[in-house]
Amino acid sequence: MESEPLVRPCSRNNMNYTAEDGSSILGEGGGGDMMGRHSVGSAGAINGEKGDGNATILERFHEDALQQVGHGKMQLVIFVVCGLALAADLSELMALIMSSKSAQFEFCVDASQKSWLVGATLLGMGIGSIFWGSLGDRLGRKKTLVYCLGVGSIFSVASAIMPTEGLFITARIFSGFGLGGVMPLVITYFNEFIQEKRRRLATTVLFLWWPIGAAYVVMISWFILPSTGFHLNEELKEHFSAWRRLLLAAWAPSLLSLIAFIFMPEAPLNLLQNGRDAESLSIYKQLHKCNKGSKTTFCFSEIEIPSPMPMSTINSPRNVLGDLYRALDSFRSSILLMWTENRRRLTLSLSLIWLMAAVGQGSLSSWVISHQATLRDWTFDNDAKTFDDNLINNTSMTADLINVRYRNCVFQDVTLENMLMNHVKFENCSFHHVNFTNVKTSHVLFIHSELTDCFLVDTNLGRSDFKDCVLEDITYQGLDPECHLIPDFNMHLSNDVIDSGLPVAGIFIGSLFTIVLVILCSPPRLIVVSILLILSASISVGLTIWKYDPIWALVGHTFLNGFVAASWSLMMTMADKYPTRTRSSVLGLCLAGGRVGSFLGVGLFGTTIKGNAAPVFSSVFLLLSSCLALRGESRSSTT
């Protein structure tokens, strides 16, 4: 329920804030400091429930100030800058997803190791969410955002030039560590400039920037990445590959938001919580002037601001060790505030719920995308041209062989030169006096075959391409590949754009739909709608299994990611149950569970469990369990 303004719109008299029951909130003794400002709360209340009264009074004062400031040009600028930071969060992840195939072949890592190319960033984000979220409650939202964006940007650029897999993963962990603080800090920073009655809707609209960052990467990848597997194989020979250039291009939103935040004001409510009244008052006046011009006057003065009690009573020397000690104590205080007796259950539930939801959403999305690729491969293989019991002798073959099967065939005195072999299988075949010269191969396999007196010159055929074969008098000259991984020449960038673009479109359309839901529904009703969305998503996924259809895939991802957006809006509502001085810490903890859950869902669950039914039903079960648990927490938190 929204509280009424505590003061008249423009009163120059000394403000006397009172609690809802009419009692004074200025403390039992009614004391004030030497400037006449009144202190609220009691000493030592930071780790107890009395500290919440202090936070509540400052928040109500902040709401009064925002009513005078109004909403205008300054909020629009803040919306764009915060949106760029949110876009940077997903653009970095999407760039890794789009470039992971190319990086896999350049670093020569198999599918199990490939998940770490993306998973390292997710793990770093999980750690960074907790660290930067807690730091932002003490150091300031804007200042901490500049630091975390700076760390993320430095290591994002560094990862693009790392020559080995180990160095690349290390750089991505630190890059994720920096970027992990972006989302919790951006949301709390943005909310402190929006009035409470508009906050939930404004946050949902801000969330639209998240898929915009991913859409930006999908579009530029079309112009940067090689269009086919053959071009990828040739392009990997360059010193600075295309996927590295994509990582640099995806860095643009981070750089722009970093520069913009340097010139943005600090969040005023956070300054009030930390006793920096003069700075907060200056920001209120700056907002008022930007929104309403100089014709009207901001009516509050520093003497009218309720002064909070000191956040810490620790006496430590004013040196580096003392500053470090105070910083650690502030971090400890933020953690303790999340685990007080009346918030312990909510904090634990929110973290576990987002862990479960992220596992389900990540595994279901990754499995649907991989299944679509499997269906395309299955359709391609069914169209293969087959030759049985043929004798091929005294000839030269120069035409490309694509999607061909040879069974029980004999090749005698044959030359295969200057050609491309893609998805070719030789089964129970015999090769006598056969020369393979300048032959580029992809997914070529010899099974139960015999090769005698053959020459392999300037070809990438390796030992791994011969399974249960008899090899006698084989001569290798030229390209015997050092890496056994060869890109699939039938791989097309357009398919990757579709597979990655569908979830992005789903997030955007689902977020638009959620804006309508936020306007029409209360938080408990949002959970009921979320359950219906997941059930609809499971149906559309089932139709995708039955027959590959991009339309049904778009429908499924729309419903699925609509759930994510609706749940995010609800979580923001429940984060308001915490004091302002610990909200970014709470969001950081919840998002840490989400990042780790995404890693488990995409990297482990999505790759180890096979079959059609298992991932679908398991993922839907996780998502439904999260919805039901979240609904229970919504009810308990409103009582």
Structural features, described:
The chain has 639 residues and is an alpha/beta fold. Among the domains are: 73-275, Growth Hormone, Chain: A, CATH 1.20.1250.20; 388-477, 3 Solenoid (Pectate Lyase C-like), CATH 2.160.20.80. 61% of the residues lie in helices and 12% in strands. It contains 20 helices and 11 strands. It has helices at residues 50-69, 73-107, 111-139, 141-159, 165-179, 182-191, 196-206, 209-224, 229-235, 242-250, 252-262, 268-273, 277-292, 320-338, 344-382, 493-520, 523-546, 550-575, 583-608, 613-638, and strands spanning 39-40, 307-308, 385-388, 391-397, 401-407, 410-427, 430-432, 435-447, 450-457, 466-467, 470-477. Strands 3, 4, 5, 6, 7, 8, 9, 10 and 11 form a 9-stranded parallel β-sheet that branches. A two-stranded parallel ribbon has the order 1-2. The longest helix has 39 residues, at 344-382. It is elongated and about 100 Å long.
